[in-house]
Amino acid sequence: MSEDKEPKAPNPWMKSLMVWGGVFLALLLMVSMFGGGAQTPAASIPYSDFRAKVAEGAVQEVRIAPDRISGTMKNDEAFTTVPIGNDTGLPDLLQENGVRYSGQAAEQPNVLMYILIQSLPFLLILGIAFFALRQMQKGGGAGGAMGFGKSKAKLLTEKQGRVTFDDVAGIDEAREELQEIVEFLRDPSRFAKLGGQIPKGALLVGSPGTGKTLLARAIAGEAGVPFFTISGSDFVEMFVGVGASRVRDMFEQAKKNAPCIVFIDEIDAVGRHRGHGLGNSNDEREQTLNQLLVEMDGFEANEGIIIIAATNRPDVLDPALLRPGRFDRQVVVPIPDVDGREKILGVHMKKVPLAPDVNARTIARGTPGFSGADLANLVNEAALLAARRNKRLVANQEFEDAKDKVMMGAERRSMVMTEDEKKMTAYHEAGHALVSMNEPASDPIHKATIIPRGRALGMVMRLPERDNYSYHRDKMHADLAVSMGGRVAEEIIFGHDKVSSGASSDIQYATSLARNMVTKWGMSDKLGPLQYEEQQEGYLGMGGRARTMGSDETNKLIDSEIKALVDGAHARATEVLKGQEDKLHLLAQAMLEYETLNGEEIKQLLADGKLDRPDEPSGPAVVRPVTGSSIPRAGKRFRGEGDAAPQGA
Predict the structure, then answer these.
(1) How far is Cα 338 from Cα 335, in angstroms, rounded to an integer?
(2) Which of 36-45, 216-225, 482-491 has the highest mean pLDDT?
(3) How far apart are alpha carbons 326 and 313 in whole angstroms?
(4) Which of 245, 287, 289 is nearest to 151 (CA)?
(5) Mean pLDDT for the chain overall
(6) Is the separation of the CB atoms in 532 and 548 below 8 Å?
(7) From 284, 421, 429, 490, the catalytic residue
(8) Which residue has the higher pLDDT, 632 or 302?
(9) Which pLDDT value is given to residue 484?
(10) Cα 460 to chain centroid, rounded
(11) Which of 72, 141, 299, 620 could join 612 in a cystine, given CB atoms 3.0 to 4.6 angstroms apart?
(12) First-last CA distance in the chain
């Protein structure tokens, strides 16, 4: 007895062919119904006019049927008419005027065509109802609810560009930790012999742009297995149950292609802590998360499916996602250090024709805090600058200009500033630079400029000499003093009443830094090493907001300590600038003349009192002190991001 074979599912191409064939037949039917052939339609005339035309001799031929008379005139014009009663004299009239005439049988109606035409609307309605019922019967499956429950996961193949570990640089530790997953996908039996089980999931944690998605693609490329990618926001819809349906369908697709990798980007969109935060819970998101938890570690085993997820906010994820058996491993993808940045630049520089003066190590040392995406953007900006300058090779100057553009924003040379505004800006930035040069713990000055960049009228950019992973108290006090340097310079040179609003970003930065020193880092002698502030999720803030803990007296003491730190920085900057007012004039005049000075030029100017620029057509320039008052500049916009941010931006 032969085995019963499971019936094969109909071929999708055959189903499509049948559908289009039915549409084509329906169109032919409509044409046959309403087209009526390619004959020229005959003109209908009254019966009396027909007899008159016969009597005049204008008719050439006539065909007589029981229900109509048709024929042609002598000018080849066709006509038709309906006879009245039984006109027995018509044959004699035709005979007398020499008209050829003949009889014609009545047309028999096509019963089958008549039935088909009458039933066509009902067949169309039944077809639509049948299609809708089929979709409803699928429930929450792959095509349920008219396709809402179908997974949006995309299957990436080698046609879309194979990525390997050679394309990933600067994150060696994360790469090594994920190498085991690649080896398992290549040879699962090697681990099964010793009773080992590969982790079911790996959670990639890191700041935006560090290469989490690229790393997941590299794992799939190295292992040579199918790679499904989907975003966490693709699961959640306004209809409750759709997200859970999409999770089920995604795992069904993955099972058919196992072994494979499923990559969920921004998983915090669907994996947030259940029942956490203010307001009502999101039933759709929580049902989607519940289904994901069940699929990852439920009664049904999903062998050969490895889930890799990425997020930059692991603190908001539900604990059930992070337990063993689900996301067994948390792989931190950090901001690369100087060696990592050099390797990343080497990967991206392969696609760019470089001049001999380009050194990846030098560029890496000058870009602390840059992520992989930032470095890729830096190389691209340098290539675009070289193309605009009609160069065949990308030189070091393009990389320096691209670095300034990425860090400080694009130059706005078209912005019109009065001489008084330029003078105010020059003294403001000179105040920052001079205080920074007199603070041993401050980061070295990279560049000072009074050319408007981005949203700022001028800025002093400081860069650390090496990668910093923690900050000391003396550096924080130095940063506070540098941030106050611009405001103090305005007060000394232009007077108390002429102080501008240009120090708004400096004040914001100093206040934020002082608050963190007091409430988070325990750097207040009066309050001690205690935490007085914590992040709190809430509906008012997109990323949460800070909540100060303590009594009213404690909060007053916190405010007084913050004010004391900022006032101390203001006093320190005042002491430096009043003691070196001649250097303040010297530096401000140089910035007015050259607009942009780098760190080495500022050191030379303060040490020698002059600035040598061989590339200037007039030779070495001697900068002399200037005096005078100025009209304060208008308030400016700012940007600032921690210690690497432009001071006085």
Answers:
(1) 10
(2) 482-491
(3) 18
(4) 245
(5) 77
(6) yes
(7) 429
(8) 302
(9) 94
(10) 31
(11) 620
(12) 86
User: What is the tens place of the pLDDT at every residue in 95-140?
Assistant: 888 888 887 776 666 667 677 777 777 777 877 777 766 655 554 4
Q: How many residues does the chain have?
A: 649
Structure token digits, residue 308:
């890799």
Helices of type H across 149-276: 172-186, 188-192, 212-223, 242-256
Those residues whose C-beta lies under 8 Å from the C-beta of residue 385, and which sit 6 or more positions away, are 394, 398, 401, 402
Q: In one letter, which amino acid is 178?
A: L
Q: pLDDT value at position 552? A: 83
**DSSP letter, residue 158:** G
Alpha-helical (H) ranges within 88-226 are: 90-96, 111-137, 144-147, 172-186, 188-192, 212-223
- In the block, tokens 């003066």 appear at 357
| Geometric angle at alpha carbon 625, from 401 and 426, rounded to 5° | 40
DSSP letter for 202, please.
Answer: E
Q: What amino acid is encoded at 272 in this protein?
A: R
Q: What is the mean pLDDT of the segment spanning 268-290?
A: 72
Residues 437 and 445: their CA atoms lie apart, in Å, by: 8
Helices then strands, counting H and E runs in the chain, come out as 21, 16
Q: Strands (DSSP E) along 7-159, which ranges? A: 43-44, 59-64, 69-73, 78-81, 100-103, 154-156
Q: Summarize pLDDT for 131-186 with one digit per residue, the tens.
A: 766 655 554 444 444 454 565 556 665 555 677 777 777 777 788 778 777 877 77
- Which run of H or of E encompasses 518? helix 504-519
Residue the block writes with tokens 């100093």: 510
Average pLDDT of span 512-525? 91
429 is catalytic: yes
CA distance 64 to 82: 10
Q: For residue 537, what are its two tokens?
A: 């999720």
Contact call for residues 319 and 338 (beta carbons, < 8 A): no
